[in-house]
Structures are given as C-alpha cells and as structure tokens.
Amino acid sequence: MNKCKISGRPLNKIFDFGKQPLGNGFITKKNFINEYFFKMVVGFCNESKMFQLYFQPSPNKMFHKNYAFYSSTSKHMKIHFRNFFKTLIKHKALKSKDAFIVEIGSNDGIMLKNFASKNYKHLGIEPSANVAKIAKNNQINTRISFFNNETSNFILNNYGKANLIYAANVICHIPNIKNLFANIKKILKNEGIFVFEDPYLGDVIKKTSYDQIYDEHVYLFSIHSIKYLASLYNLELFDAKHQTTHGGSMRYYICHSGNYKPLKSIQKYLSHEKKLGLDNFKKLKKFKINIDKSKFELVALLKKLKKKGKIVAGYAATSKSTTILNLCNINSELISYISDTTKDKQNKYSPGMHIPIKNYDYFKNNYPDYAVLFAWNHQKEIFKKEKDFIKKGGKWIIFVPKVKIV
Ligand code: SAH
Ligand code: TMP
Questions:
Q1: Tens digits of residue pLDDT in 92-113
Q2: Which among 3, 196, 253, 382 is least surrounded, fewest beta carbons within 10 Å?
Q3: How confident is the model at residue 75 (pLDDT cuts 50, 70, 90)?
Q4: Ligand 2, atom 1: closest residue by C-alpha
C-alpha cells in the first residue's frame, strides 16, 4: 500500500489529508449515511521521483455513467484544445493522409471534435458513459471503456497502430500506469508520438495548490518522473512544454526511443526541477509546512468574516474544492452555498462537508459579500464575466498562491 507504484520502493510520506470523500462525489441528502471516504495520504519515491497517492478508490467508483465533469463547460479549455490541434496536425507524425488518432479520456469530445471535423481517422476511449454519449451524438467515434489491455487489443485488431495518442488530464488518473505505458508501446506506430498533459508538480509546489490532490489524481508528474517511467518501456521523453491550464500543467512528448531527437527543453526543465527540489524528498517536505499555513489562514479569514456577519459563498464546485473543504473542515456555517454551472452538481451537496450546490442564477440573484474562487484556474475568464458582482460591492477570496481578499 505504501510502495511506489513504479519502482516498488517504500514511499516517503509528505502529507496526510485524513479521511476524504470523492472529489466529484456530489451527493443527495438521502445518501449522506452511506457516503464513501478513503484515507488520503501522499508520498514521494526517491528512485522514480514520482509524487503519488498511497491509496486511491477503485476507478469504477469515480468514472461511471454519472460522471460530473463535462470538459466543454469551459470556453477557455475549448480554445486551448483547438489551438493545440492546429499545432499537432503540423507534426511529422501526422503527415500521412490516413493518420490515426487515439485519445484517452476524451470526455465529451472537446479535443477530438477538431480532428473529426477535418475527417481524421480517430477513436476516443472514455469510460464515463454520460460524457461519452455527448461525443457520440456529435459523430465523434468513441468507445465507452477504460484504456487497458482489452481496449489496446481492440485498437490493434480494428484500426491498427496510432500516429498520435493524445491524453489531457487523465494519465494522472490511471493507477496502473506501468500497464498504460506498456500498452502505449504496443499501439504506437514507429514514427508515432504519445502526447499528454497533466497538472504539474512544479506548479503545485510553487503555489501550494494542494487542492490538485484528490482521489482522481493518483500522480503529480514532473519531467524527472516521466523520463524515468518512459525509459522503463524503451520509450523516450523528447520534448515538454509548460501550460497555464488547470493552474499550471506540463505537456509531455514521448516517442519510441531514438525516433525523435530530444530537445533542449528537457535539460532545461530538469535543471529547473532540481532547483525547485522536485527530485528530492528532503526539499519537498517544505510543502507540508506550506499546506498547514494556507489552511490556517483560510479558516481564520472565514471565521473572522462570519463573526462580522458577512455572507460567504463558494464560486464553482470544483473537484479540487473537496480537498480544501474537507481538510479545513469548512461546512455551510462558514460557506452558505456554492454555485456551479454543471447541472449534475446542482441541488446536491458538496462531498463530505455537505454545503448546498446552487445553480448560477442563484448566485446572480443572491450575491454574497464574499465569494471564494474555487475555480481559481479559470480566474481570468470568471473575473471578466463577474464584473457586476464587484460593482455591487462583492469581493473575491482567493487562496492560491496565498490566501487573500482581492
Ligand atoms: N481530456 C478531458 C477530460 C479530462 S477528465 C479534458 O482534459 O478536459 C478525465 C477523463 O478521463 C474523464 O472523462 C474520465 O472518465 C476519463 N478516464 C478516467 N480513467 C480513464 C482510463 N483509465 N481510460 C480512459 N479514460 C479514463
Ligand atoms: P475544473 O476546475 O476542474 O475545470 O472544474 C470547473 C468547475 O467549475 C465545473 O464544475 C464548472 C464550474 N464553473 C462554473 O461554475 N463557472 C465558471 O465560470 C467556470 C469557468 C466553471
């Protein structure tokens, strides 16, 4: 249980979050009594350099026909994927006319719709049936399944090997990542590329954005850990690019070893990570001190506002907010409600702390004195949209990189 999922060596404990519910486990009142909790602890392996959960709930508990996260709710992410699509199709690996693209965790088709609209041969692998159905209804070829041995064989038998395997915000969700890399090796064409992006450990450490840690995020990757992992399968990390999405992500480019020349970016990031201490358990221990401080400051601020009789609401019921609310023990006494645009979350309660989730109109009609910005990774988009809230005297509370009122 406390062994590195890559190297098998014992993990060094970094932080114990205690009992946590599922990040996306929005719940109705009648289910409060059988709500699921698990012990959430994160640790680091000095050999593989992988930052990881000790234990995670079974994937079937998290990804199913009622999965609450719909990628296309964010305009900003739609643009992000569209722009990257335009870059990707210029890559050497996609030059051939019959190029075949596989996407792992394709959700509602936010990325694949770009390929589909240009008639690329494509296949999305998506286990959460509700979101996959949206993609299917939009003529995006999608298989409702986890990416695993069976799916990989299905791909080989029905489509052949892939020119591009793409994945965003999903590889870090997959506990058996060694099996995933073995399957990538198997289904990637000789000149093919495997490109994926996930929240970056470097940003989490720099900004103390500990809310990136929840059940679905089994790993927080770095250049060090991905380089190590790829090399176990005779694959090679040949390029990487930092992204501003999801509060700071890294995009990794992987090929069969020796097929593309490693770019200077890799060496540059490795040195950067050494400076940040991402390869060193002793330095990473500082993260614990920073989390404790952030927690203390947020709770103190909310208690002070309550004492003054101020109304505080949450803005966006993100999965990330589940970690914060449960670690800090913040319930509806401190935050009256959380508004969110996702229908499946509305009229339910936040996981663990049971704060009511309201729709967006409720926020518009019941402006609080303060709104805690849980979707801080969409800050630009939201601040632009919510000028009226500020005009009417509302204030934002942010907690990344520091707790403050803005
Ligand atoms: N790529 C999208 C969705 C990210 S959410 C985006 O960046 O917005 C993660 C998605 O991966 C969910 O839709 C989830 O159902 C899916 N997923 C989780 N485990 C998976 C697995 N083992 N194989 C394929 N998809 C998986
Ligand atoms: P994410 O941070 O994982 O992308 O989740 C975003 C959540 O925030 C999702 O539930 C939708 C919600 N949201 C809003 O309620 N309003 C907004 O303006 C945005 C951008 C997101």
A1: 999 998 999 999 999 999 999 9
A2: 3
A3: confident
A4: 318
Q: 142-178 burial string, b = 16+ CB within 10 Å, else e?
A: bbbebbbeebbebbeeebeebbbbbbbbbbbbbbebe
Q: State pLDDT tens for residues 362-375.
A: 999 999 999 999 99
Residue with more model confidence, 358 or 76: 358
Cα 192 to ligand 2 centroid, rounded to whole Å: 34
What global pTM score does this model have?
A: 0.95
As to burial, measured by CB atoms within 10 angstroms (0-12 exposed, 13-18 middle, 19+ buried), residue 179 is middle
pLDDT of 1 higher than 70: no
| Greatest extent of the chain over all pairs of C-alpha atoms, in Å | 66
Residue 216 CA, closest ligand 1 atom number? 18
Residue 387 has phi, psi (to 5 degrees) of -65, -35
Which ligand 1 atom lies nearest to the CA of residue 167? 1
Percent of the chain scoring above 70 in pLDDT: 100
- Ligand 1 is surrounded, with C-beta below 6 A, by 59, 63, 67, 69, 71, 77, 104-105, 107, 110, 125-128, 131, 146-147, 168-170, 173-174
Atom of ligand 2 nearest to the CA of 317: 10
Q: How far apart are CA 26 and CA 349, in angstroms?
A: 6
